[in-house]
Amino acid sequence: MTREAARTTEGAGPNADQTQALRHALGQFATGVTVITTRSQAGALVGLTANSFSALSLEPPLIVWSLRLSSSSLSVFQQAPRFVVNVLTHAQLHTSQHFATSQPKRFDITGHVENEHGLPVLRGSAAHFECRLVSHQIAGDHCLFIAEVERFSSAGAPPLLFHGGNFFTLGKAL
Prior knowledge:
The protein is α+β, with helices and mostly antiparallel strands. It is built from 4 helices and 12 strands. The two termini are 28 Å apart.
């Protein structure tokens, strides 16, 4: 790490250049792309694109994901007792981009079925995880959601990947 990249002022947050440099460095870690779905207390279907999803524990089966505090969907997910994490395939790039916007009626043009709790499960996903919220907490400018996996399915299809600000598919296995 260079001295410039590591330099911060004691007690002060990073400046805009440092924030961009950190974003770029973090972008070197390839992630999968998900659409996380739920239903609001008023009954509306809600979904958003997230790549901050990760396995947390196998015993018990727990996952974690985070959502920016400025998200208009934050309160819906904080109040929802359950949600579904849909791992997208490379064929669902348009779905990823669609759910990354605030367009209304996103579910009208996205194939899905509802699970036993009335939550949308996207058709054609590489995998999906039906989850029960265990906890959420504020950490920096995001809210971390920890949930127990109640049901899951895997289609074995190649996932959509995000790296360095671009989308990719899996290459040859090593």
